[in-house]
Write the structure tokens for this entry.
Amino acid sequence: MRGRTRVNHPPEVAVAADNRPLVAPIYQSVKFAFDSVEEALRAERGERPGFSYTRRANPTSRQLERLLAELQGRDDCIACGSGVAAVAASLLALARAGDHVLGFVETYGPSRQLLQGLLGRFGVAHTLLTIEDDAGIGRVLAARPTRLVYFESPTNPLNRIADLAAITRAAHAHGALTVLDNTLAGFHNHGQYGIDVFVHSLTKYAAGHGDVLGGAIIARQELADRIRRDAVNLGAVLDPHAAFLVLRGMRTYYLRYEAQAASALAVATFLAGHPAVARVHYPGLPDHARHALARAQMHDFGAVVTFDLALDADGVRSFVDALEFFAIGPSLGSVESLVLPPELLRPRGLSAEQAAASGIGPATVRLSIGIEDPADLIADLDAALPR
Ligand SMILES: *Cc1c(COP(=O)(O)O)cnc(C)c1O
């Protein structure tokens, strides 16, 4: 074999089946070959296991999918290139022209824009309610055939809590599927409810380190098979190198989530006692409007702490600028703490009435609590707040 050929047919290094690496390798290969046409065709027909093309399946991505499906308590998972890709693939796979989707003013902005824009252009109508309007949800579902109820809990950024039992019961009574964006609650929460489809941004708690984008769709087999066909054709798949990074992040998922949630509760408690803070929105606090429901539904309450300052616009701006350990930036759930001022939280594409119903005010600030020492975070907040 000459050099030009050799570099394209490098020597193979076989690893025996009883000599496994402790960390599974990254299968950074788009193509998988068979030794004969017959075996390739058998794999194609599903008569033997095998991979062919990474857009359809890849061993590293598959390991992540199996892990996440098990943690969330469903049959299967489709790993996607981002959280928004997971949302878009789910919506496009499950809705068709003429359908109606029930969404909410609190829905994550880009997901809401998919409902209002893309799905609208393909003839899918939607209604937006507020997530705590259980009576309204029942009324809309009774009045109008609805394909999907698309929602989040806790919502971002206000940490409103959906009544999962009430929503799944009402949806199923009226033949609608429930799709829950479970990013803020995480894989260890909400599996016990009759949610049909979970979507997650893996960019947040799963990857955990702010260095990789990813998304996941998790559902029972029949729904997952349906969604996978469309997701693969949309090309919204996760790259195996990104899947490896998310798998590495998942090794410390519980440790990080629990530590961040404990620090978030400490921060929320501190803020609730400060005279410059008008109101704290954290479901772990006893005076949260749906604290009892959150306790019943969730093991812990996440790392997002949102609050309204009792300050004018200049005061809010000075507070955010004065913080030392909270970077001003989007996203949440990573190891580092973050802050977003009201100007960057304001929902876009809502009527004035809907924007008011979303609860985000001119002095609303969102924190994402990382794994720094909570005493340092509280001291930082204390120093930045006026006395
Ligand atoms: C961040 C986020 C998304 C989008 O995820 P990306 O990975 O950034 O595409 C969707 N839903 C929620 C609730 C999020 O916080």
Remarks:
- The longest strand covers residues 304-309.
- Residues 83 and 114 are 13 Å apart (CA to CA).
- Residues 28-54 form one domain.
- The longest helix spans residues 253-272.
